[in-house]
Amino acid sequence: MAEIRTRFAPSPTGHLHIGGARTALFNYLYARRKGGRFLLRIEDTDRRRSEQRYVDAILESMEWLCLYYDEGPFFQSRRGDYYREIVEKLFAAGHCYYCFCSPEELDAKREAAQKQGRKALYDRSCRASARKPQAGESPVVRFRSPVEGLTAVDDLVRGRVVFDNKELDDLILLRSDGTPTFHLVVVADDLDMGITHILRGEDHLSNTPKQIQIYRALDAVPPRYGHMPLIVGADRARLSKRHGATSVQAYREQGFLPEAVLNYLARLGWSHGDQEIFSREQLCELFDISEVGKAAAAFDMEKFAWVNFQHLKQSDPKDLARQVTPFLEQRGCSVCDQQYLSAVVALLRERAHTLVELAEAAEFFVVEELEYDAKAVAKFLEEESLEKIRELAAALEGLDRWSHDDIEAAFHRILDKHGLKLGKLAQPVRVALSGGTVSPGIFEVCEVLGRARTISRLRQCCEQLESGTLKLRS
Ligand code: GLU
Question: Is the pTM of the predicted complex or chain greater than 0.90?
């Protein structure tokens, strides 16, 4: 069988958004699953709207998602000569013609058609003439679309969709300044790049019969198409800024993991039994276009956060430490000891939905100078507790081994001596060690902080409280 070749063809007119990333992912997965190749092509022929910063942002987001392409990126803006050659070919075979109608004439024709309730197709008034442009004239070049018959698309997602050729317009292929238009460049490139399968959003479905006709005019076999359902918000309207963040970059900044983004995007339209959580490897192994549904896929932020939580929980602590580091730095913490941070995130990873939350929870472990929550201090660090904290510090200092069980035993020795319940000591110690009242189990916290840090924090807290130098935050 011929090699499978897919592509992602974004226009760099904005950041990579969720819908675009899903398109990239499905093409990537399709190629991976079939042992084929995945290409990246930047569709930047619209020079006014395309910007380099968006090219950079798209490349960066794809790299972050590890959506690696086998070929490219190709830039349409650099392929003008090739497109003009294709138009020459179409001319030679009688499939296009010059159209001299002025923009004003075309506007008037469009308006008239609309008034009569007709679809605003070009009336083909230049189609019969073989006139060539004279000096000073700059006509557009139009495609001679068939006016009879049907064009069928055997869509990989939607099944057979049939279009009446009467509905197809005589598309403009070259504008009056000689620049190529969208349909021409897409077909010309997909043909040249040997693309065999195109998975794209449903909004492109109506373009497909037009593009198929260009393939036929070039005596070429069109690729297979699969049009994926729209992504909608909770209100069933097409996903837009109104619904919240839509770019991959924004989710990266909110602390989502790339694997979780891929997992959630895959589930927007695709399902595999009841399974919700997939690793990248599983997606590559299991993705099957026949399991992509036709119904619009609803973007659900809560579900997305849950998927992220599941991936966080399963992540390798070393990896997670690396990923949470920039979020800690944003909070003003400098982290050098990745081994220590790995132990911290291993303790916290089941308590956070995002890297932002994880960084928040990890902060007290890594800061040099702790700030204390004023209310927590007032409530838990009264004089009596300070005494017990000091006793505990001494007991911890004398331990032979620094293990969870030994730490627990040291706590119990102090509790037994004073006839106290665990909370009476654990909560003041928690405030002394973390600055607040929320943390994982107190023995685990001590264990991860390590002996030196634990003891010095306990002692420093008591001293600073007594000398009135404790740094408080309200
Ligand atoms: N450049 C087009 C877009 O960003 C995609 C064209 C295609 O997939 O055929 O919507």
Answer: yes
Which residue has a Cα nearest atom 6 of ligand 1?
Answer: 9
How many A from CA of 43 to the centre of ligand 1? 7
Could you tell me the two tokens for 167?
Answer: 């509905």
Percentages (nearest 5) of helix, strand, coil residues in the chain: 50, 15, 35
Q: Let me know: does 31 contact 72? Beta carbons within 8 Å.
A: no
Q: Token digits for 389?
A: 């904290």
Could you read off the pLDDT of 13-68 as tens digits, one per residue? 999 999 999 999 999 999 999 999 999 999 999 889 999 999 999 999 999 999 99
Distance in Å, CA 136 to ligand 1 centroid: 34
375's CB contacts (< 8 A; 6+ apart) are: 474
Q: Using only the alpha carbons of the chain, give its radius of gyration.
A: 32
| Residue indicated by tokens 């303790």 | 347
Q: What are the backbone angles phi and psi of residue 59, rounded to the nearest 5°?
A: -60, -40
Specify whether the CB–CB gap between 129 and 135 falls below 8 A: no
Residue 17 sits at φ, ψ, to 5 deg, of: -100, 175
- Nearest to 19, CA basis, from 229, 291, 236: 229
Catalytic residue numbers?
Answer: 241
pLDDT tens digits, one per residue of 361-393: 999 999 999 999 999 999 999 988 999 999 999
Residues lining ligand 1, CB < 6 A?
Answer: 9-11, 43, 186, 200, 204
Instruction: Determine the Cα–Cα distance for residues 228 and 268; give it in Å rounded to an integer.
Output: 10
Report helix angle 442-449 to 451-467, nearest 10: 110
